[in-house]
Amino acid sequence: MSEAGASGSSGRRGVVLGGGGVTGIAWMTGMLAGLLEEGVDLSGADLVVGTSAGSAVGAQLTTGLDLPELLERQLAPVEPGAPYAVLGTRVLLGFGWAMLRSRGDLEGFGRRLGQWSVDRAAAGKLPSLEERYAAIRSRLPVQEWPAPGRLVVTAVDADTGELRTFDGSDDVPLVDAVAASCAVPGVYPPVPIGGRRYVDGGARSTANADLAASCAKVVALTPIPRAAGPMKSAQAQLGGKPSVIIAPDEGARAAIGKNVLDPAARPGSAREGLRQGRAAAAEVGGLWG
């Protein structure tokens, strides 16, 4: 689905890349490649906001990597029996418990999710930090920040529930920032940075599109467009700002399947993103200019 506002004629252009697991990375990569094939190049954005899966794609987009090559990586066959995580019943119950206890308090929701994830990691129920860093490094061929402030990576403080953004203006390595943004509560361990522990930026919003409020026009790719409880959708966060917001259509949702962390669904998700990107090029190009 998508929604477009009236196009602004000047000013900064922003791209918002939302959370969505390994299939979200594949779908967004396909979207960006499909748009590029039709002459719409989002890599020239003045600001890219990346949350969870979007932080990895945003890092790739802003560090000058070749989109067709990135797409080929997503389309490559997945080795049979490759290990993967599952957003299973236990994790979904943990999210539901945190939401009910928080009673509309967004930071309370993030804090409860964060503490629950800290406890699961301490009990040895989550992968090690070393495993997670290895996975994140494999997704980032270039591991240096782009120009400070051009890429904003989101995470949530596991102890306070507060939003934390990383943009290359401090000493936090890009790999650490992306690992924190991708630390799905209850699935992957919280990431320590500067004496604090951080979990997935999706614990505040699957898109965090309000961080692009300084831009005159915004394109948002949202693998998980829905919002629940105190969280807001990208559409609500952007309000009436000139924007195009795109989520997986019916064909893409079928390819993604029920487990967004399943690498077996990655090639199909990338192909559907490529198709959807080509189809959306006229709409996006009309806004982007």
From TrEMBL:
Gene Ontology biological process: lipid catabolic process
Active-site residue list: 52 (nucleophile), 200 (proton acceptor)
Motif extent (GXSXG): 50-54
Keywords: Hydrolase, Lipid degradation, Lipid metabolism
Pfam entry (one): Patatin
GTP-binding is among the record's keywords: no
Record's keyword annotation contains Translocase: no
Motif interval(s): DGA/G: 200-202
The name this protein goes by in its record: Patatin-like phospholipase family protein
